[in-house]
Model the fold of this input.
Amino acid sequence: MEFIKNPHIDFLGKARYFVALSVLVIAAGLSWVAAGHLRYGVEFSGGTQLILSFQGAPEIDRIRDAVTRVSPGAVIQTYGEAKANKVLVRISQEAPESDLDAPARAVRQALADSYGQNPILESSSEIVGPVVGAELRQKAILLTVLGLLFQLIYIGARFKGGIWGVGATVAAFHDVLVCLGFLAFFGFEITLNVIAAILTLVGYSVNDTIVIFDRARENILHRRKDPMAKLLNDSLNQTLTRTIISNGTTFLAVLGLFLFGGEVLRGFGFTMVVGILVGTYSTLFIAVPLVNWWYERQERAGAPAKASA
Amino acid sequence: MPPALQNPVTLWLLLAAALAGLVYAFMRPELRWKAIGYGAFLLACAVAIWPPYERQGVPGKIHLGLDLRGGIHLVLQVVVEDALSATVDDSVTTARDQATRKGIQFGAVQRVSPTAFSVEGTEPARVKDMRDLLRDYFRAGWEVREGGEGKFTVEMTDLEQRRLKDQTVQEAIRTLERRVNALGVTEPVIAATGGRGDQILVQLPGVTDVEQAKRIIKRTAQLYLKLVENSATSEEALRQSVGGRVPDNMQVARGQGETPGEPVFYLLRREAMITGRDLKSARVGVDENNRPQINFSLNANATDKFARETGRNIGRQLAIVLDDEVMSAPVIQGKLGADNRITGRFTTQEADELAKVLKAGALPATLRYLQELTVGASLGRDSIRDGVRASIAAMAFITIFMLVYYRLSGLNAVVALAANLLIVLAALAYTNATLTLPGIAGIILTVGVGVDTNVLVFERIREELRNGKTVRAAVSNGFDRVWITILDTHATALIAAAFLFQFGTGPIKGFAVTLVIGLVANVFASYFVSRFLFEWVLGRRHVESLSI
Done:
């Protein structure tokens, strides 16, 4: 079975429209983030998050009344499937390091006092003091940047030309920015799991780009006469089936994660779903055109560009 | 199962021998070594994970992380300043005692920072003697500076501070280990963490009474038996009794009075007669009114000292101070022996917890909570169900797709994916790493990467076939040509995964672990095993077409 036979699509010719689209999407996403719409999970912002499982069906309004009395501004919502009787309580006030779980205790006490007819059977909590939150935020940014940098170095070394590394890295960075915009727009919190997903998608995006770069390297070696643009475009077409099938199956696998992975993995699944789509797109329309643009500029300047690849 | 087969190594040897026999009987000679090598490795993996989960009392080989099992994850900070000031306080006492013994007059000796103390107003004629004394007693790890007019400052060196800090953290870890053992938690993790080296990670999987565990962990449990100089109902009254200023060798402590809500304040000797370190054991008992109390026994050395000191102070009050609070202050009736008790207003549970922490020993410094994560058992079960459901959905879909799209060759991919999974799980079991929910996500992602490797190879083989190559040449070229791509893609993915490791602990590490193992296993399964399967099926005879 084959989906596409011998494709001849002119990816590079239309690249400029897609670059414009990317710039638009990233600009929109970043301004949305800058407007303060990106929410941080409790591990980064500090504070308390409780998941309370009640004996019977929880009445959110009554729970809200009880909780906001001791903790104004708390966010209360149903957690997971409705029949699980679970409620998520997010307390924004700072958890004092001398008595970290004081806000959590106060909330549980308040519920026991004024909503005692529906007792809490089990309580899961995540409490993060201000020190850890700040440390983690810095660490997350540092690690993402370092991860990208090391991949850039590796690719640069493997392809004996900085532009290939730059192409793959710019594409991966593009993916991170687009994902952040999507996360902010759809109201997902930045949690540790989401950071893990972002780092993974960096790896995935670069992985996808490399497959095509490798093919281009092989073509350059065998067909020295052809112009770079044709070589690159042919490489995209030759690997197109693989791009569709590999990314398609991985996409469906993470879609399963997003749909069936439960509450804990929802943010992770969402980031991966967006990430794989964007990662595929950026390989076709950002990474390869960038390399092409570089070589065209070199050629116009009269430098023997192809030999360096 | 016969007992001999319960030993995994024996079991593996037997299975491997059976495999070798089959291979020898049915396989072409040039493939034999590969077949036995790959097969024996995969059999070892299968043996390593058996049984995967707890069955009939035999614990499972796959360790589930906190998020799947339920339990507590705490990050604590050791307030190392406590230990530093305690050491400086000891030094102050030493300096004062020695100067007094040598008959040197001085104004005051006191701690001026957590790491330094000063001596002031030394009599001019004996400044040299004081200098010699300080240099003599504070030679290693200290720096003695002279400020003129008989003033000295003695400060701990940076090196000594670091050594003491490390020692404090290590001691805290050992104490926590003993306490956690008293709780009866299986597979706990207690380890130093964090960049500054003063944080401790405590993971207690499967713990249900979170509050109790936290109380037991956090309690400093410093026990002192100190002589009482005076007592009063307010701190102010006590201060007035000693002329407004508490002398250097005394301290004020608060205690429970006869009636609840009315505390009593005690003026105590700073020097303790007995400390928690002198305890041999501690357990719960009941007093004559059937109220819970804590019985403790002293070790031999301390018993001698205790008998001597109590014999000398008959009729005086002896305060039992626990974490700076006076629990009780009985009058010494006579010489006391090894076995003693602590009474106070405890519930049985409190007394039980106290006995546990006293027996485990005191923490060398106060602990502060930085982070706390508790997962209820039912939430963990939900997560397992969701994770397994997502995994099965992903695998089922991929299996069907590969079989439809690549027909019989797709079977290769399915075998490779199964082998990949087996290796990841075996590596988890073998290294005692835990499987977390993000870890399951990592496995699903590994499956995605595995599919990619197979697709790369299969598409290349198809391309070679279209170019008119024979089946065997197409397969061989296909594998050869994608090798470099597979190497590059896996290397970059490993770079990304390596940075995930840097998040240190918790669920993310679980993700990084499965991803790293999965990537390495995938090269083996989707490249080498798959290539072997092609070679085996294609055989030596001439093949006209390939089901791909």
Remarks:
- Chain B touches chain A through 70 residues (CB under 8 Å).
- Chain B has a mean pLDDT of 86.
- The two ends of chain B are 42 Å apart (CA to CA).
- Chain B has 15 helices and 19 strands.
